Every structure is written in C-alpha cells, then in structure tokens.
Amino acid sequence: MKYGPEKSIYWIILIALALSFLGLRYLRYSAYVLPLVAIFWAILSGAFRFNLNRQNIPFLFLLIMSLPTVLDYDINAVKKIIFIAVYTSVFLFIDFSRVRLNLLFFSGILVFLLFYQILVFGSSYGSGLSLEYSFIESRSSYESTLAFPLAIIGLYYFLTQKWALALIHFIVVVLALKRIAIIAFLLIVIVWIIPKSIRKIFLNPYVVTVSIALLTWVSIAFAYGYFDRLIISLFDKSANELSQGRQELWFQLLRGINYSFQDFIVYGEGIGQSITVLQSKWGLKNILTHNDILSLFVEIGLLAMIIFVFLINNQRSLEERGMAVFITILFLTDNVLIYQHVMLVYLLVQSQLANKNGTNRDTE
Questions:
Q1: How high is the mean pLDDT in each 10-residue block of the chain (364 residues)?
Q2: 3-state secondary structure 154-179
C-alpha cells in the first residue's frame, strides 16, 4: 500500500506524544487534539469510515457504559471519558492494520524522551546522572511511565521473534523500572516458551477473564490486610510499603464506598467516582487508584468489568492475545487506561500484529 492517511496519522500521533513529554505547559495536552486531526485527515483523504474490530471494541464498550455518568456532571467522570475517548476515536476512524508502521523509530523517540525527562527534570530518586536502583522498593533514578509503551513495543518484537530488539527494549524497561511492566513481560515470555497446547489454555479469553475476576477479589483481600503476615515474612516489609501505598489507597476507596460485594455485581458508583471518593478521603486534587481493574469494578460493576476484560482478550491470533494479557496485567496495579502514551501505543502494536496475521481483513 502507498503512503496513505494511516501513516500520516501515525506520524502525527508520534509528534503529538513527543510534544506532550517535553515539559512545555501549552504542549502538555497536545495528544488530546488527535481525534479532531484524525477525523479531519480521514475526511480530507477520502478514507473516513467506522473501523470496528476486536482491538477497539472493548474501549467503545467502556465509553458506552460510561455515558450515563455524564448526567451527574462530575468532573472526574468527564475527564476519564475524554481520556478514553481520545485513543478510542482515533482507532475508530483509522485502520492502522492496513499498513506496516516503523515501530522501531517510535521506540527510539520514546527512549530519547525518557533520558530527556530524567536529565532535564530529574526523577523522584535522583537526577539521572547517577544510578539509584531497587526493584523491591521500586526506586530507580530513571523511573518513568514511558516504561509501559517501551515494554509494549519490546513485547511486540518478542512475539514477532526479533529477539535482539526485544532484549534491548527489556533492558531499558528494567532501567525505567515499572515493576508490573517487568513482571508482565516476563510472564508472557514464560507462557510463550511452554508447549503451544498449554499456551493456548493460558491465553484463552475465558481463562484470562476468570483469572482477572479472581485477582480482583485478591486485590480487595489485600486491601483489607489478609496477606499482611505472609508479605512481612517473605519481604520483611509491610504490605503497604511493598505496594508503594496502594494497600491504604485501595482500603480507603473500599471504605469510602461502603463496600459490599453484592452491591457491585450489576451496578457501580459511576465512571470516575473512584477518584472522587479518594479525593474526599485524602483531600488531594491529584490522586489515582493505581488499579484500573478495581476502579472499573467500583465504577461500572462486576458484570460490565468482566465483559470489558473478555472483549480485550478475545483476540484471534495468539500473538494478539499475548499482548492483550500483557495490558490486562498492567491494569491490575496502574492507571494506564487514562495514559495516551500507553493506550495509543498498545492499539498501534495490536494493529501491527493484526497486519502480520491478517486477522482484521474480514472486519473491514
């Protein structure tokens, strides 16, 4: 295929994300104009059409489930809906699986931004000129959320058997230290080296969905302190220390909603309400749950959360399923659903896996 609207939008995405990470106030939200650019460019090029496939349907479902909350005029609901709508709408109007993209150049820009941020702005654990590193304490002079998109691209290279590129990306991810990204990456690698028949079981969307439902219960039990003694005996640290404050955060969220399991089977508190509850409890403007799955359970209820998880993992090829399991694991301990630099890269990579396997051809 010749150079078309898909590749043009791809470069615009790359530029917008790069600008948003330069630390300039008025460029910080440059990624949020992408839907308008995508629609305009698609109309101008004659490529405008709705692109429904297995990669973007889960997020469209999530947006539909979020719409009733808009009537409450809650700022956190509006913000979360906008965050999800940005990357969803881009992929709703542009089908990137029709073209092959230069992901290596994209990852090169991400690595540049990683070191640019650390050298110019520093990190919570140093200036970046000297290395402070502890996996258990989640401390690194180079810590950055850019570890997430770099891990996604690195996993793409692993799944497409480009071992050297995968290893290089993994080393950078270890340096940027997002523990869940490292753990999720290694879990997919382990699943990939076991016999294919067993691999299919682990990547089965029904198995993954049931596992996530169980891990949601584990997160709640963790918040209530059921694993405190075990964690102290294994790591000589409290559960709250080991989780970087997540235990107390989740406990306050559950306490704030007067949690009772049966009340959240069908309905939730409304999209964005997990943040509203935490803000009222902690008195902080900028606070996140650091658990997308638990947030969705609280906000849209167990049933809708399960459907969402199933839709994400119900991909055709094993490579796409492996990538879907990876992002689902990230959802368990972080807020990547609202990160454009994570979700845009995830959907781009899934589109490239679909391109490689031809899995979207019958949906066009």
A1: 71 88 79 81 74 92 86 83 92 88 94 87 56 79 92 98 97 94 98 96 98 97 96 93 93 93 90 91 83 96 97 97 98 94 96 87 44
A2: HHHHHHCCCHHHHHHHHHHHHHHCCH
